[in-house]
Amino acid sequence: MISYINWTIKNLEINQVIILTNFWIWYEIIINELIYSHIINKKEAELFVYHNITENWQNLFWFLSFEDREFFKELIKISWVWWKVAQNIMSLWVSKLKIAIYEDDKKLIESIKWVWKKMSEKIILELKDKDFIKNINLQKEIKQKQVNIEKTTKDEIMSTLTIMWYNPKRVEELLQTLPTDYDTIQKIIPFIIKNI
Question: Long-range CB contacts (< 8 A, 24+ apart) of 156-162?
Answer without folding.
Answer: 156/185, 157/185, 157/188, 157/189, 157/192, 160/37, 160/40, 160/185, 160/189, 161/189, 161/192, 161/193
